[in-house]
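Troubleshooting: if your tokenizer reports a length mismatch, compare your output against this known-good record of 305 residues.
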Amino acid sequence: MTTADTTPLLRIGLLGTGPWARNTQAPALAAHPGVELSGVWGRRAEAAHTLAAVHGTRAYTGEEGIDALLEASDAVAFALPPDVQAPLAVRAAEAGCHLLMDKPVATTVAGARAVAEAAEKASVASVVFCTLRFAPETSAWIAEQGAVGGWFTARAQWLGSLYAAGSASEYADSPWRREKGGLWDVGPHALSVLIPVLGDVEHLTAAAGPADTTHLILRHTSGASSTLTLGLSAPPGAAGVEIELRGERGTASVPGWAGAETAFRGAVDALAEAVRTGVPHACDARFGLHLTELLAAAEEQAQAG
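Known-good structure output:
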């Protein structure tokens, strides 16, 4: 089956059946004109069959189902906890599948490094889905601010109310998210905006705040500094996302974006481009490893007090 311009469809299998897979990834993959959703694998057979049926594709279950889905796919997308994702990403790369991963790639440096090395060894393309790097509005803003330069400092606050009293979000049921908190869940998003604009992180200081909140102070290779406040337990009235840059030309604030599904389609496009050209995307497995290195260092500092 081909698209109108005769470009073969990229067969992408989905590993995972939770809220993220149901609400974002499966709908985006099924509706993408350049993609064939080649199947859905889940740890729970009933959930895999239900999600596959909704999108008119095949369900895969069990250990043998993973290998069968990899064989039927050119690439795989992950909607799994990071430390379940990482070894399966290694397995997928070794099977020759390109990788569309969620952030963080892993919560250990060793796990993230194994993914990056496997992708490199197998010469497969990889993309880590940091939402703002792929949403059209924010990705354009990041590129524009990086080109402008001259930034002196930046401030990022990414506060959710997932664990606030009365929250009914289905994402709050995620064990890894509850254990690792906002640093690991929303930290990759904030870092993925600041690093391409201000340069890599030369020095990092971290301290724990209330509940799961973590505060970071970063010094970047451009000479600029930034501060980050990251958490998932803010009162609902305090929740929100703000990223502001200050420099020679005044201030600039990150714009709003349409939503996760639109951004995920952008990540699919980025993976397809990397597959087609052989040019690695800036937000690839190596970048995912670097994010894990930074977050692990921050976690260690914050826990040490």
